[in-house]
Amino acid sequence: MKYGIVAFPSKKLQDLANTYRKRYDPHYAKITPHMTLKDTFEADEMQIEEISKKLTEIANRFAPLAIHASRVSSFFPTTNAIYFRVEPTPQLEDIHKEIQEQLNIGTPKHVFVPHITIAQKMTDSEHDDIFGQLRMIGVDEKESIDRIHLLYQLEDGSWTTYETFRLSGVE
Question: Out of 34, 96, 127, 149, which one is annotated catalytic?
Fold first, then answer.
């Protein structure tokens, strides 16, 4: 089964992201706006129990995540994805690194760039047009996220929560 680890922003930031996602993101109906902490990985029932235990330990060490979605950016030319850039902080880097090292499930596909995707899978011309518009509108949202989530993928391709972990530490 496929799993992933994410942090969901506040409803306010999700609603803002969804104003764009419903038009520009074909995954709009499959998953809520989120910040990926661990890319998709495969695991069986035995592995997922161990992963849950490790995520509980990690969550108990880390304080709620202070995030700042500061601007609209793009992964072009790698992909035509547009996103709200979440400013990297030592805390975000540390929790990402800890999850990667503790779970030790596959190497990351990309360098960790904290973000919330708002548009993807567009043609080059669509990307250029939409990116220009969204950059002018911008984003400037600061908030705290006090939970991380282990998700799993359903047969229809949508994602749902397997387990939630409250960030209750001091780091």
Answer: 34
Q: Which domains does the chain have, with CATH numbers?
A: 2-166 (3.90.1140.10)
**3-class SS at 72?**
strand
* pTM of the predicted protein model: 0.93
When the pLDDT of each residue in the chain is averaged and rounded to a whole number, the result is 95
* Residue 127 among the catalytic residues: no
Which residue in this structure is represented by tokens 């706006």?
33
pLDDT tens digits for 105-120? Answer: 877 788 899 999 999 9
Catalytic residue among 96, 115, 127, 149: 115
Of the candidates 44, 70, 34, the residue with the CA atom closest to the CA atom of residue 147:
34
Residue 25 has pLDDT above 90, yes or no: yes
Is residue 115 part of the annotated active site? The answer reads yes
Going through the chain in order, the beta strands assigned E by DSSP cover 2-7, 35-42, 65-74, 82-86, 115-119, 141-145, 147-153, 159-166
